[in-house]
Amino acid sequence: MNYFIAENCGDQTFAIHERVAQTKWLTKLALANARLYGTDSDFGFKAMFKKDDAQEAIVTILDHIYNFKGKMNLRPRPDTLSSPRLSCVAEDSAKVYDYLNLGYDPWHRCLVGGPHSTPIQAFYAEGTMYTFLCPAFFAQPRMSTANHCPTVADNKFSGDAGIFYQNYQTYIMLYHFIHFYLGDNALTKYTDPKAQLDWNDCVHLNTLDSVLNPTNLQIYVASILDTDTTAGLSALVAKKCVKVGDGADGV
Questions:
Q1: What number of other Cβ atoms are within 10 A of residue 13's Cβ?
Q2: 89-98 exposure pattern, b = at least 16 Cβ within 10 A, e = fewer
C-alpha cells in the first residue's frame, strides 16, 4: 500500500493532510496533460523540456507522486519500499531523528539554510524518506487562488515568480516530492550543471537536465493549473498561461 505519513506535526497534522490532498490534485491535472502528445496537450513539451522525448520521464515522476509509490535504499529502511514522510521540525528534531545520521541539525538548517543564512520553508533530507517542514513553511499561503501567469518579452519571463509558483505550501511540498522521487539523479547546488531555481535559467537547460531539475517540473504543474489567460508561448511555458510580449517565440 502506498501512502504518506506526517510525523510530529501536532495541531498542524490536519492542515498537512489538506495540503497533501491539494498537491495530489495538482499532480493529477498535470499527469493527465503529460500523457498527451504535442498539440493535443494544453502544454506540450517544448515549454520547460524542449522535446517530447521528456514525456515518459515526466509521466513516471508525476505518477509516482500522485500514487506515493515506494522507493528502495532509503534510510532508515533501505530494504523496504518507502513512501515519502513529512516531519515538522522542532528544536529537538536532531535528537528525534538521530537514527537517520543526517550530519546536521534540522532545526538549525531551517533557521539558516536559505540564501545569506535566511530561514527556509522545507527541505528533503537526501538519502532518506523524509521531507522536513520548517516553521517558515506554515507562514506561506496555502495555495494560489488567482491567476498569476507571467508575461514574456524578449524571450524572458517577467513578473513575480513568488506569486506564480514559489511561495505556496502546495508548490513547496510538490517541489520536495519531486526531489524525493528524482533522488540522487536530481540536479542540486553540487552537480554540474547546478540546480536552477530561476525560471529564466530553467528554460536554458537541455532536455535531460530539465527533467532532472525539480523547478522545471514545479513550473510545469503551475502552468497547467493557470488556464484562464489567453494566448500562449510555444517555446517557453504553457499556451494558456503566458501573455506573450514582443519577441516571445524564440529560445
A1: 14
A2: bbeebbeebe
Residue length of the chain: 251
End-to-end CA separation in angstroms for the chain: 43
* Mean pLDDT value across the chain: 81
CA atoms of 242 and 150, how far apart (whole Å): 6
- Dist. CA 221–CA 40, nearest whole Å: 17
Give the pLDDT confidence score for residue 3 in this predicted structure: 73
Which residues of the chain have a pLDDT value below 70?
Answer: 1-2, 37-47, 145-155, 162-163, 225-251
Over 102-144, what HEC string results? CCCCHHHHHHHCCHHHCCCCEEECCCECEEEECHHHHHCCCCC
3 backbone dihedrals φ, ψ, rounded to 5°? -160, 165
C-alpha to C-alpha distance for 189 and 107, rounded to whole angstroms: 21
Q: Which amino acid is at 220?
A: Y
Distance CA 155, CA 242 (A): 12
What is the Cα–Cα distance from 176 to 251, expressed in whole angstroms?
28
pTM for the whole thing? 0.85
Tabulate helix, strand, coil % of the chain (nearest 5).
45, 10, 45
Task: For residue 16, count other CB atoms closer than 10 A to its CB.
Answer: 21
